[in-house]
Amino acid sequence: MSHQANSAPLSFKEKLGYGLGDMASNFYLGFFGLYLLYYYTDVYGLAPAAVGVMLLVSKIIDAVSDPVMGLVADRTESRWGKYRPYLLWAAIPYGLLGFAIFFGPNFSDTGKLIYAYVTYIGVMLAFTAVNVPYSALLAVISPLAEERTKATTYRFIGAGAGGILIAAFATPLVSWLGGGDDVLGFRLTMAIFAVLSVGLFWITFASTKERIKLPPHDSSARKDLKLLFKNTSWVLLAISCVLIVVGLIARFSSIIFYVKYYMHDDGEAVFLIFDRVALFSAIGLAGQIVGAFITPYLTKFFSKHHLVLIMCLLHTVLLIIGYFVAPDMFWTAVLLNCLGITTFGVVITLLFAMFTDCAEYGEWQTGKRTSGLTVSASMFALKFGSALGGAIPGFILGYVGFVANEALSDATMDGIRMMATLLPAALFALGGLLMLFYKIDKTLLVRIEKELRQRRKSLPQQ
Known about the structure:
It contains 17 helices and no strands. 78% of the residues lie in helices and 0% in strands. The radius of gyration is 21 Å and the shape is globular. The protein has a single domain, classed as Growth Hormone, Chain: A, CATH 1.20.1250. Helix 2 packs across helix 10 and helix 7 runs antiparallel to helix 11.
């Protein structure tokens, strides 16, 4: 394969195919972020604090499994490449375990908690096995940062579309399929999204290519990790990504409580088949698609890290304004949420493109490309953020004396308002401010791309 062909623009088909992989991911992350805490507490009957502990404990395993999967993927050699094979095979257990979380067997309280631990940890391991390689694929899909940013744009358009489908149709499907039995409704609804997720990952596998082909990876895992942590920009990016995702998921996990209890939603449809929770979430997530779509245009005027800083601070302001919205101002709250998620759409698109920039930077510095290990931080950020973002509202609900389906005190209500607005505002602000210290700017990226192209030309053709 010629280097000229490797540097050619990505086709629409390939960018779309890559984007569908994150739609598959967000059928799970979106479902978990919006409804997992609610399902465990209000439907399956687990205590909020116990759920919070479970979500955090599972991240101890992720702290090991994510970088291990990155190291394994970097060392994989197959006729399909390093990363694409996992989209084909790991998607199957991913689908099965996602369904298992919401199967909802009628065990004792202790049995239910054990079942929740086993299935949640299981699905997060499956998520690692498919999503670390999926994210690493972006780093080898093109040698050009501009093309990778375009592919990332399609990725987060797909992610936003997946989130919208979950937000719009999850609660109506639960009601319709369950016929009043929420456990059955969640079980059947998740079965649909699990099947769709597997199919979409297979489409991604079939429609993408690995264009950057390097010699087999021969350095030790310890050396790879040591070199990675010397990359200051990667460390800052990883911490920023964790803070931002925790803020987002804390917000998402709070929405159903915020709308149900603070805005007095009774679960009835207010537009066609959609209740207020579905409308609030779906309209908000439409903003993520808008944000992802406009990102390539914004990067013509700003460096990526400066744009992340600007958008995080805008999101912070919108969340603070949201704290003061009155209970009867539903559509004002919807508008603020949509604008906030639009800024997040820009931020998350840039963050994942920046992880691949860090992989290029690492290869430029050391001569070794560790795409899987480098982007495994993004998967850990997503999963740790999903868990901690879901756990913190659980702890807050327990602290302020929340009892499901009962009238709430003023202190409890204010706790719900704070966990839906001020808490994520603080996390977005911190995540954005870290970008003041990020060092990989436009000028350096151009130099890196030019020098790496020269190096790769001297490598034997595959």
